[in-house]
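Researcher: Next sequence.
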Amino acid sequence: MKLSPRRRRRIIRVAGYVIFVLAILAVAGAADWDRLSDAFFRLDVARSMFPGAITVALRNTIIYTLLAFVFGLTLGLVLALLRLSSVGPYRWLAAAYIELFRGLPALLVLFMVGYGVPLAFPDREIPGGVYGSVAVGLGLTAAAYMAETIRAGIQAVPKGQLEAARTLGMSHTRAMISIVLPQAFRIVIPPLTNEIILLTKDTSLVYVLGVTAGTIELTKFAGDTLNTRVNPTPLVVAGLLYLVITLPLSQLVRGLERRAARER
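Model: Next structure:
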């Protein structure tokens, strides 16, 4: 009996689901769950991490992320405008910054801000202590990526919008602030939200600055507990707490992308 194309596609789709489920069951059946549970899912070890994991480590992780994002967004906007400037040296400066900081590991930038800046300027210090150093250290790298995102958003706004604003008597600066930038930011909100997710994970590098009990973040908190209890369960708990931050942000990105697709 000859199958119709529609029926053939349905059979292939069902076969794909069956193969997927069988593969999952095969892996799950072959795993030694007793040893896995004893190594990674010790409830007594997990319970010993609370409430500090939330009241200190998770809170600091969120604070570091927000501070670095604000610093990176501000600097990224300036760099994007310099990149689009009609003055050559401004464009070259912004391009050099973006290429440099996109090529350097975030850990190295954070280390240089934490230890290189105090050596270069012994009579000055970054305001905010560790919080300020993290904002600058992670924000410098994030700004390079955000600058390119914002630049693409500005260039996606039709030039006629700016020309119409200038025709109405607006200065170039006012037209950019009132007309172009609001539309550009509406375009780049989803990729900027992705940048928050990346910054959340980059906070795991903050340990290089030598954090204290009051400024510790999730990964360092889990590492210290692992060394104390000699069990990797804290790393699993830290991973789940990272997901508490990143999964809602991922849902937000998908929602914003669907909304933007409907408006196009």
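Model: The radius of gyration is 24 Å. The chain is about 80% helix and 0% strand.
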